[in-house]
Amino acid sequence: MKIIDTANNIAALAAKMARPKVISAYPITPQTTIVEKLAQYVESGELKSEFIRVESEHSAMASCIGAEATGVRTFTATSSHGLLLMHEMLHWAALARLPIVMVNINRAIGPGWSIWSDCNDSIAQRDTGWLQFYCSSNQEVFDTIIQAYRVAEHKDVQLPVMINYDGFILSHTSMPADIPPQEEIDSFLPPYSPEWKLDVDKPITHGNIIGPEYYMEVRYDMQLSQMKAKNVIKDIDKEWHKTFGRSYGGLVEEYMCDDADTVIVASGAIGAEAHASVDELRKKGKKVGLARLRVFRPFPREELKKIAENSELIVIDRNISVGMEGAMATEIKAAVGNDIKQFIAGLGGRDVTHKDIIRMYELAKENKDGWYSVEVE
């Protein structure tokens, strides 16, 4: 079925088709229309799920944690300050090894108050143990939500997943998407069979105090599961491609990188816009490629290192780790072990066009980088 709709409505449809038993929700711009749509599905009987209206985003995640621990599939969505309010519970969900799936609509942090996009909200959660995906189209939003449940619930992973995309740029923009029939989604994503759950007939202690002799092992096991998730993500993306004809490259989507001497690295909507920049630069005879970072956690170290062997990297971050640089640039430098050119761009929803990306390429070739349109020009 072909539809044209906003990323938020498509995200709600994907969540519905994943058949969660519990949805816990609190509204925040620009995420609100996701949970509103899910509420309509539940009210109309299209979705058999318990819809829990809570008093805050902290409670929304706490409700998902409680429900998931009883062995049922859950879903929630948030944005910006709502995600920050969840911070304590994000750590709890990951350490409890609960495969919750959540959509986060990237929105800048205030003050000054902004409802427009940048990625500081999700980047601030990179150390919580959640897997992080960054989508570049409405179709990818749908596909990734379904895939995310398979990844999160895999026996080798058992960690929560956060799906991120740009506020308004995608969330409220209508684009076409191909929606498979429910029976095909059910075949790809069978009912949740938990590795463990709370059961009054089989009592266990869970989340209790843990001494120094064991706590480090708990963290180490999370690290191992994140590393195992790399192959799980790739395998599920390949299975999705075989079943539905679409692939996103697993962790990194490469475009014209085979013969490139320069590769632009970006994510989200900027990653999508960079396709047009690469096409235009190619017409000018420039050997430029694009590596769209689809997955930030687990970090695709090996993939980026391979790309950097024969190409200079130009990294565009829609975030800033204040006092250092863009978070993506920092981690790429640590991964590839060589110098890169880097730009901070698009904070607070500032538009980044394909012409801006071409200008960043030109500045990088002049051995300039930094804050695009702030310090550079």
Helix/strand-derived category reads alpha/beta
Name the poorly predicted regions. none
Quote the beta fraction: 15-25%
Strand order, sheet with most strands = 3-2-4-5-7-6-12
Morphology? globular
CATH topology-level fold name of the largest domain: Rossmann fold
Secondary-structure element string = EHEHEHEHHEHEHEEHHEEHEEHEHEHE
Number of domains: 2
**CATH A-level architecture of the largest domain:** 3-Layer(aba) Sandwich
* Helix content class: 40-55%
Q: Tell me the number of strands.
A: 15
Query: In angstroms, what is the radius of gyration?
Result: 20 Å
Main sheet record:
7 strands, mixed
Helix tally equals 13
Provide the residue-averaged pLDDT. 96
The CATH class designation of the largest domain is: Alpha Beta
User: How far from one another are the termini?
Assistant: 46 Å
By CATH's scheme, which homologous superfamily of the largest domain applies? Answer: Thiamin diphosphate (ThDP)-binding fold, Pyr/PP domains
Write the layout of secondary structure elements.
Layout (H helix, E strand, L loop, with lengths): L1 E5 H11 L4 E4 L6 H13 L5 E4 L3 H13 L4 E6 L1 H5 L1 H9 L5 E6 L13 H4 L7 E4 L3 H16 L7 E6 L7 E5 L3 H7 L23 H33 L7 E4 L6 E5 L1 H16 L4 E6 L1 E3 L3 H8 L3 E6 L9 H10 L4 E4 L9 H12 L4 E2 L6
Parallel strand pairs: 2-3, 2-4, 4-5, 5-7, 6-7, 10-11, 10-13, 13-14, 14-15
Antiparallel strand pairs: 1-8, 6-12, 9-11
Helix pairs in contact: 1-2, 1-7, 3-5, 7-9, 10-13
